[in-house]
Amino acid sequence: MARESREVVFVDGVRTPFGKAGSLYAETRADDLVVNCIRELMRRHPQLPAERIDEVAIAATTQIGDQGLTIGRTAALLAGLPRSVPGYSIDRMCAGAMTAVTSVASGIAFGAYDVAIAGGVEHMGRHPMGEAVDPNPRIVAEKLVDPSALVMGSTAENLHDRFPAITRDRADAFAVLSQQRVAAAYRHGVIQESLVTVATRSAELGWGLATADEPPRPGTTKEALASLKTPFRPHGRVTPGNAAGLNDGATAALVAAEDTAAELGLPAAMRLVSFAFAGVDPEVMGVGPIPATERALRLAGLSVDDLGAFEINEAFAVQVLAFLDHFGIDDSDGRVNPYGGAIALGHPLASSGVRLMIHLARTFREHPEVRYGLTTMCIGLGMGGSVIWENPHHRDAGSPVPSALPVQPKGGAQ
Ligand SMILES: CC(C)(COP(=O)(O)OP(=O)(O)OC[C@H]1O[C@@H](n2cnc3c(N)ncnc32)[C@H](O)[C@@H]1OP(=O)(O)O)[C@@H](O)C(=O)NCCC(=O)NCCS
After folding, report:
1. 244: Cβ below 6 Å to ligand 1?
2. Catalytic residue (choose from 123, 127, 359, 378)
3. Is 228 in the pocket of ligand 1 (CB under 6 A)?
4. For this structure, is 37 an active site residue?
5. How far apart are alpha carbons 248 and 121 in whole angstroms?
6. Is the CB of 218 under 6 A from ligand 1?
7. What are the φ and ψ backbone dihedral angles of 27, each rounded to 5 degrees?
8. Alpha carbon nearest to ligand 1 atom 15, residue
9. For residue 231, how far is its CA from the centre of ligand 1 (angstroms)?
10. Atom 23 (ligand 1) nearest CA
11. Nearest one of 63, 41, 58, 59 to 50, comparing CA atoms
């Protein structure tokens, strides 16, 4: 049977405000965070009949308790999608949501789906990193990896060792920039447009509404960061200020075949160009985005100079700076994380991939002169993931689908 690959578009992405682990969402279930995102996507796109959704792929790193029970399926049922809509779970640690997107996108390109929901959740308050893991003793006994490879902050210290030009001073300066950019993005309403308000409950405080991210520290100064301790190594360089924190949150995105989006009148915020995952030494997992990006560029027939916008997950400042040094990009280049990143916003592991895509989609909308952009992230146990996107608003991109992103007023179909 003759088969043609189909173009895939990122229609829209939403997320819950991110909380500090076990704070804002202490008494909110992880699966309910996902449900909020799915329902918000449906509310924003009433022209999409729920029965047209062919798959729901939701990522979580710790797939137990309220993040277990095949959360893609349970969240779909809980969100009120028809029972005919299937779902599944994904795990690639920090790149869970990114892998959810590339997985459903592959299914769309193959012709198995027309429209899918992809996202991720991590409630690090309810499920601390490493909960219930049982690493095979061979991993350490046979020195398959150094024990430091299992502690992400230690891998970041290892990266500082490998690249001495990346000083603590540079890492702290980058962290300040992230905080300043998030503060500016909030001032301009950039962040708010992708947030779904979440009702929170606290036995002590009663009901509340989460409407903004909890982790940002807009007043952050380099002087304050310089005084912070280095929890992963005495006299190290990684601090709570230049690392992403421990957070709770969820994301979800609508991904569709470009022809189906046109048929249903769904907007196209980004067109998928290529994606790649790569493995590196687990002890320095932070370099993962470098070979992943090189491979994604090769697959796309592009060079890094063709990329006009970069969304690099800020698990640790050192790992972003290693990427920038490799590609000869300045620490404060305005094309990189223009609305800030995980150091300020937080990084609920498996949810963050879609958060990067949301930010890139906004950059594309603001900058029609940008044709290609990148979302990339490092991944525990030594991996990187990269997705290259094309801007449908670019004048040469020839988009056959409407490019405006309609935001429906609250109180619509729910
Ligand atoms: C680094 C880490 C251990 C810090 O955890 P923590 O101690 O709970 O962090 P806190 O938010 O309490 O911050 C610690 C201190 O730094 C201070 N601090 C943090 N950010 C700051 C900032 N931007 N400016 C000034 N002070 C700051 C806090 O006020 C706090 O001070 P205190 O001890 O006097 O109260 C934790 O965030 C972590 O493990 N991050 C990495 C997560 C990870 O590995 N993700 C996966 C990536 S692959």
Report:
1. yes
2. 378
3. yes
4. no
5. 8
6. no
7. -115, 25
8. 240
9. 9
10. 241
11. 41
- Residues 293, 323, 390, 366, Cα dihedral to 10°: 170
| Digit-coded pLDDT (tens) for 314-358 | 999 999 999 999 999 999 999 999 999 999 999 999 999 999 999
Quickly state the pLDDT bin for 384 (edges 50, 70, 90): very high
Counting ligand 1 atoms within 8 A of each CB, the residue from 220, 239, 323 with the most, and so the one to mutate, is: 239
Structure tokens at 196: 């779904």
For ligand 1, atom 14, which residue shows the shortest CA distance?
A: 240
DSSP one-letter code for 45: -
Cα–Cα distances in angstroms (integers) from residue 105 to residues 27, 223, 390, 407, in the given order: 34, 45, 14, 23
Q: Side chain identity at 179, as an amino acid letter? A: Q
Residues belonging to the chain: 414
pLDDT at 414 over 70: no
Question: Of 45, 123, 160, 347, which is the active-site residue?
Answer: 347
pLDDT tens for residues 1-19? Answer: 888 899 999 999 999 999 9
Q: Is the pTM of this model over 0.90?
A: yes
CA distances (Å), origin 346, targets 1, 18, 175: 47, 7, 12
